[in-house]
Design brief:
Layout: E1 8-9, H1 12-15, E2 16-18, H2 20-34, H3 63-82, H4 85-100, H5 123-139, H6 143-154, H7 168-178, H8 181-197, H9 205-209, H10 218-235, H11 238-254, E3 277-278, H12 279-296, H13 299-315, E4 327-328, E5 331-332, E6 334-335, H14 360-365, H15 369-375, E7 378-381, E8 384-387, E9 393-398, E10 404-411, E11 418-424, E12 430-439, E13 447-450, E14 453-454, E15 463-472, E16 476-480, E17 485-489, E18 495-499, E19 502-506, E20 510-514, E21 528-532, E22 538-540, H16 547-550, E23 552-555, E24 570-579, E25 585-596, E26 600-612, H17 619-625, E27 626-637, E28 644-645
Parallel strand pairs: 8-12
Antiparallel strand pairs: 1-7, 2-9, 3-4, 5-28, 6-21, 7-8, 9-10, 10-11, 11-16, 12-15, 13-14, 13-16, 17-18, 18-19, 19-27, 20-21, 22-24, 23-24, 24-27, 25-26
Length: 653
């Protein structure tokens, strides 16, 4: 079967083995929310997809199945990488129940969402069937593609009503597994009908190709645009790939936040210091970028995945992976149950850290982020292998000449510059294949050596270095990615400091208080109110052209878990001045945006005592309120922070 893509997925559960800090972080999430999501309450305290109906507490009949499906997908992938038998069993119970109980007409899943006219009835299937695909790759259970084909081909339902279109991801995978052309025809038909029904939607091909600024629900945007990419991979229709390419360009231009994820609160809104994204969107944005990486072979998309996972992802979760934010913001100096400053949920707990800080989707989706990162660290190329995302790991693969090869990657990246690849050719002394290695776009002077000698090929930033050669057993390839300091400017007039793939933010002393009244928490998984216990009102005093003269870099003792607030691996000491008269915004009433299916968006006025993170002051106001004394402040990796200032005013701006 011909596909139109540069790279393809490896069988990651059998061929990729994470270790070091990467495995430790997966274990941290398994011991935290991933393995214990029932603590967040409904619907995670039900039997999920082992039920024909989950008693409704709100929303549509499909809704609780969507939430539990996110969890099963993230949990099963995490469990397979860890080889955790108890976690595997917990996830497989739901998967096997669905596979072992198909309806007479081939339908898979609960009775309550089978109706043909159910709004978004197929959407929850799109989420759950990703877990079935993961199960197939881990077990090679041939029932999976066979039953999925029967589900789709015998069903009397279509997949073009709003987010139902995301089901084409599984339809096309099933087509690849079975070769059944009717599935490809179904996918093409439904995508055509989708674009005919929603031509003015931001996620239609027409609108993706346009310059119109999108304001769609951020998660829907990132979930849906990938369908055009996947269709391109099976059809070669260039318009589809062009549309998603432009959709990513528009995201970067209008909505990309500094931590690597587009704004989504809940709509795509902007890119200021206090705009925010859902934790959901970290999972969906990076998953879609992965498809674009495979389709195009463009290293830019791997850079995007890396930036989101190394910055936004750990910052949205407590160090122990037992609590998360629903909304995360580049600047946030308070995170209690009244501090959410986004239009939707304004004045609510959605920016605080707790097992369920808002609607359940983020609570479940956070389990998907890191397993998906590991799954796409290594990809396949014709007679070759591709190191796309870096981290301590091992990959086994077979060349076109049936030569077995293992590559072991040792590194503390992104906290160090050196990545070491050791090549083992198994039973033979040599093996011929091409080794493709991503050279990140942020790196200006990359170096590659093989057995201590510089290679003749020139590594170029923002591309994949292709080494097509005969490798010997024990060859040692070292990639060095020098990390230099960089000052970036943002739309609010603020600046940020980056080094390599990491963004840095102010290290604020944190005062954690348990919210004893929170309904979705336990003794071991508390809900938190978080307050700043040190000043955060600073402007930087640095020169963009001579940043190294102003900023001192200190490397701390490394720990097994890389993103810890109290034990960061790297610190930056930066000169700054304190800003007078900059305080939390206090309000006694707020306008809260809400939404329902019938009325769309509407506004409610909410009374209470609210404290919010302020925007950074404009230059004129800043100069009036700057202290004269220069202090030294400490910045740490953004992913190590829970309260943070990452976009600062700068005295010299």
């Amino acid at each position: 079967m011909k596909t139109y893509c540069t790279f393809s997925e490896v069988d990651s559960f059998s061929s990729v083995k994470p270790f070091g800090w990467l495995k430790n972080y997966l274990q941290l999430q398994a011991d935290g929310l991933t393995g214990n999501l029932h603590v967040a309450g409904y619907p995670f305290d039900t039997d999920g997809w082992m039920q024909d109906n989950i008693p409704m507490r709100s929303g549509e009949p499909w809704w609780p199945f969507e939430q539990t499906a996110y969890w099963v997908d993230g949990m099963i992938r995490c469990a397979y990488f860890l080889k955790d038998s108890s976690l595997i069993e917990k996830a497989e119970n739901q998967i096997k129940h669905v596979l072992n109980n198909p309806h007479e007409d081939g339908y898979l899943g609960p009775d309550s969402i089978k109706s043909n006219d159910l709004y978004q009835g197929r959407w929850s299937h799109a989420v759950f069937f990703r877990a079935l695909i993961a199960y197939y790759y881990a077990t090679k259970d041939q029932k999976v593609p066979q039953l999925l084909a029967s589900h789709y081909l015998n069903g009397k339902y279509e997949h073009y009503d709003w987010r139902d279109i995301c089901g084409l991801e599984t339809i096309l995978w099933t087509y690849e597994m079975t070769g059944e052309k009717r599935l490809l025809e179904m996918a093409m038909r439904d995508y055509r009908k989708y674009n005919e029904k929603y031509p003015e939607s931001d996620v239609s091909v027409k609108r993706m190709l346009s310059d119109i600024v999108a304001d769609e629900h951020g998660v829907t945007y990132c979930e849906t645009i990938k369908i055009a990419t996947i269709l391109y991979m099976y059809t070669g229709i260039q318009e589809y790939l062009d549309a998603v390419t432009n959709a990513f360009i528009k995201i970067d231009k209008n909505h990309m936040l500094i931590d690597g994820v587009c704004s989504s609160s809940e709509k795509l809104r902007g890119k200021s210091s206090t705009d925010a994204h859902e934790t959901c969107d970290i999972a969906d944005y990076t998953w879609t970028a992965g498809y674009m990486l495979m389709a195009t072979g463009n290293a830019e998309y791997a850079d995007k995945i890396e930036r989101a996972c190394f910055n936004a992802a750990p910052a949205a979760v407590k160090d122990d992976f037992k609590a998360l934010q629903y909304f995360s913001s580049p600047n946030q100096v308070i995170a209690d149950k009244f501090s959410c400053h986004t239009p939707q949920a304004c004045g609510a707990e959605w920016m605080s850290y707790r097992p369920k800080p808002g609607t359940e989707c983020c609570t479940a989706q956070v389990t998907r982020i890191w397993p998906n990162y590991v799954a796409r660290m290594w990809l396949k190329a014709p007679n070759g292998i591709v190191a796309t995302l870096f981290g301590p790991s091992k990959i086994n693969f077979v060349t076109e000449a049936d030569e077995e090869v293992t590559i072991t990657e040792k590194t503390d990246y992104p906290f160090e510059e050196k990545i070491q690849f050791t090549i083992n050719t198994k039973s033979k002394e040599k093996a011929n294949f091409n080794f493709n290695i991503r050279i990140p776009s942020w790196c200006e002077n990359p170096e590659v050596t093989v057995n201590g000698e510089r290679i003749k090929e020139e590594p170029i930033s923002g591309t994949f270095l292709r080494l097509d050669r005969t490798f010997s057993d024990g060859d040692l390839l070292i990639l060095k990615l020098p990390m230099t300091l960089k000052l970036t400017e943002w739309c609010t007039g603020g600046v940020a400091i980056e080094r390599g793939p990491l963004l840095y933010a102010l290290q604020i002393d944190e005062k954690w208080e348990i919210d004893k009244d929170a309904p979705h928490a336990t003794k071991d998984f508390p809900a938190w109110n978080l307050y700043a216990n040190s000043p955060w009102q600073y402007a930087l005093c640095v020169d963009k052209d001579n940043l190294e003269d102003f900023v001192k870099v200190f490397f701390e003792k490394k720990t097994d878990i890389p993103w810890q607030h109290k034990n960061p691996h790297i610190k930056l000491i930066v000169p700054a001045k304190k800003i007078k008269n900059l305080t939390l915004l206090k309000k006694t009433s707020v306008d809260r945006e809400d939404w329902n299916k019938d009325d769309g968006f509407f506004t409610n006025k909410i009374e209470g005592n609210f404290s919010f993170t302020p925007s950074i002051p404009e230059n004129k106001e800043l100069l009036k309120n700057l202290e004269s004394e220069i202090e030294e402040i400490t910045l740490i990796p953004y992913g190590c922070t829970h309260l943070r200032i990452s976009i600062f005013p700068n005295e010299t701006s």
